[in-house]
Design goal:
- The protein has about 500 residues and is an alpha/beta fold.
- It folds into three domains: about 300 residues, no CATH class; about 55 residues; about 120 residues, Transcription Regulator spoIIAA.
- Helices cover about 65% and strands about 5% of the residues.
- It has a four-stranded mixed sheet with strand order 3-4-5-6, sandwiched between helices. It has a two-stranded antiparallel ribbon with strand order 1-2.
- Strand 5, helix 16 and strand 6 form a beta-alpha-beta unit.
- Helix 2 runs antiparallel to helix 10, helix 4 packs antiparallel against helix 14 and helix 5 packs antiparallel against helix 6.
- The protein is globular and about 70 Å long.
């Protein structure tokens, strides 16, 4: 209970400036951002499938909403949010939640980087209005990130910008009147005659929100050792979007940053997510006069910093080591996200990734894998403390989710041998999924050895940093060598245990 209360309260503090900033950036206003975080976030928390997920307005979503609002007005944006929510609920009921996770890594990295660029550009206007406030807020946020890890950096920067403006600068560009009251239905403002034209923007909102929420849930699973229900989470996100849009709030999505803060502060159940919305509403009711004096340049600075942190910098560092197709697909997806829209970018990226997979399969000398489309795993117990997990089939992005699922199916034995003898080819997404599997095993205190590597899989694992993270002494080309080292490790553990028992007896 104490952890959930602390987690919910901390997440609410972090969410306040972001809700204001994203609401204003979307064009719907600060109140729309608050409604989304409070009522949309509360609905998603109650009906979702991830207990510690914190939902609300996000930077990626805001970029999409700006384009919809400019073309169809605020009412059109709200109607698109309702349609997106309905789509998410339908996807959840049809049990399509797991298919969102099959996106290739360069496509995910590409649209993430594209969204961060659009996000940055959207904040530049207000940032230039009062440059001094923007610089002060940005500098304080950077200092907070660098030296005060436990302080909500966005709130820290917001306070600095507010104080500087009140005492020295006196910029008139502030949030302004913010009369918080119980929301009313906005159905009469929605252009229902434009539903046909809004289906594509709604699908974009649905796709972006679903990907963001499910990836965030994957991250929190790793932090607390739980497993979320992806289909139920889609239903919760859909209902949250419907409720938020119907009462005048902007569409929402699960957010990694806020959900991670909730977990690190002690949140472990749905109570933390519910309390986040309640605490946020109490803060607005108590601090309304202060909130209306917040400079818009401070909110723009928060958005700029968030856009830089949103970019997938790790993916850019991996380009030199990966194959040329990895970087090409990522760059194309990024450009299309900025120049066109997210739906087109993702569709083109997935098609290009599929073509690369087909070329790789048809050029493989192992003809038996051409008919396979997904990797499978089998488990063999060879010792009281040692187990062999054998993977079969090509390990491409379409099979990466199977590797992730293996995490929950692995036994409690402390020493594992991961057999890749039947994995003839592997792409970057598969290698990264395999790396995440190894990292999860290490966090759980297990010892993992890799064996049965051919030249292609060995080269890919080296390029993506899997072998460096595991240690070369635990990676063997032959399966027999890996099993032998695992047995030696088990024997050492038995000897150490006997020594401890002998000392205890003495």
């Amino acid at each position: 209970m104490r952890g959930d209360v602390l987690g919910g309260a901390t997440a609410a503090i972090v969410a306040l400036p972001l809700a204001l900033a994203f609401g204003i950036a979307s064009g719907a206003g600060a109140l729309a951002g608050l409604y989304a975080s409070i009522f949309g976030g509360l609905t998603a928390a109650v009906f979702g499938g991830c207990g510690v997920q914190i939902s609300g307005p996000t930077g990626a979503m805001t970029v999409v909403l700006v384009g919809v609002a400019s073309q169809y007005g605020i009412g059109g944006m709200l109607l698109a949010g309702v349609l997106a929510g309905v789509m998410q609920v339908i996807f959840g009921l049809l049990r399509l939640g797991r298919f969102v996770k099959y996106l290739p890594q360069p496509v995910i990295a590409g649209f993430t980087n594209g969204i961060s660029i659009l996000f940055f550009l959207a904040a530049i206007g207000d940032a230039r209005e009062t440059v001094s406030i923007t610089l002060i807020t940005t500098l304080v946020i950077i200092i907070a990130i660098r030296f005060f890890e436990k302080v909500p950096e966005s709130l820290f920067g917001l306070a600095a910008g507010l104080i500087a403006n009140e005492l020295f600068i006196h910029s008139p560009k502030v949030v302004g009147d913010l009369v918080f009251h119980m929301p009313k239905l906005t159905l009469n403002t929605m252009p229902f005659n434009e539903i046909g034209h809004l289906l594509v923007p709604a699908f974009t909102i649905c796709l972006l929100g679903s990907i963001s929420a499910l990836l965030s849930a994957e991250v929190t699973d790793g932090l607390i050792g739980a497993r979320h229900n992806s289909n139920q989470e889609l239903i919760g996100q859909g209902l949250g979007n419907i409720v938020s849009s119907v009462i005048g709030g902007i569409p929402i999505s699960g957010a990694v940053a806020r959900s991670g803060i909730n977990v690190h502060s002690g949140g472990r159940t749905k109570l933390s997510s519910i309390l986040h919305s309640i605490f946020l509403m109490l803060m607005i009711l108590l601090l309304g006069p202060v909130v209306r004096r917040i400079p818009l340049a401070s909110l723009a600075a928060i958005l700029i910093v968030a856009s830089v942190r949103t970019a997938d910098w790790k993916s850019l560092k991996q380009i030199p080591g990966a194959r040329w197709s990895y970087g090409a697909i990522m760059i194309i997806t990024t450009i299309l996200t900025v120049a066109k829209d997210l739906t087109v970018a993702v569709a083109v990226g997935v098609v290009l990734s599929g073509i690369v997979v087909l070329v790789e399969l048809t050029s493989s000398p192992h003809g038996k894998i051409v008919g396979e489309h997904n990797v499978k795993a089998s488990v063999l117990s060879v010792h009281p403390d040692v187990e062999i997990i054998a993977f079969h089939g090509p390990l491409f992005f379409v099979g990466a989710e199977n590797v992730r699922r293996c995490i929950g199916e692995i036994s409690e034995k402390p020493i594992l041998v991961l057999d890749l003898s039947e994995v003839s080819v592997m792409d970057e997404t598969g290698a990264l999924a395999f790396r995440n599997l190894v990292q999860r095993l290490q966090k759980e205190g297990k010892i993992a050895y890799i064996g049965g590597l051919n030249k292609k899989t060995l080269r890919m694992l080296m390029r993506m940093g899997v072998i460096k993270g595991l240690g070369r002494n635990r990676v063997c080309k032959g399966l027999g060598s890996a099993v032998r080292r695992a047995f030696e490790e088990a024997a050492r553990a038995d000897r150490d245990e006997c020594k401890v028992e002998s000392l205890g007896s003495a």
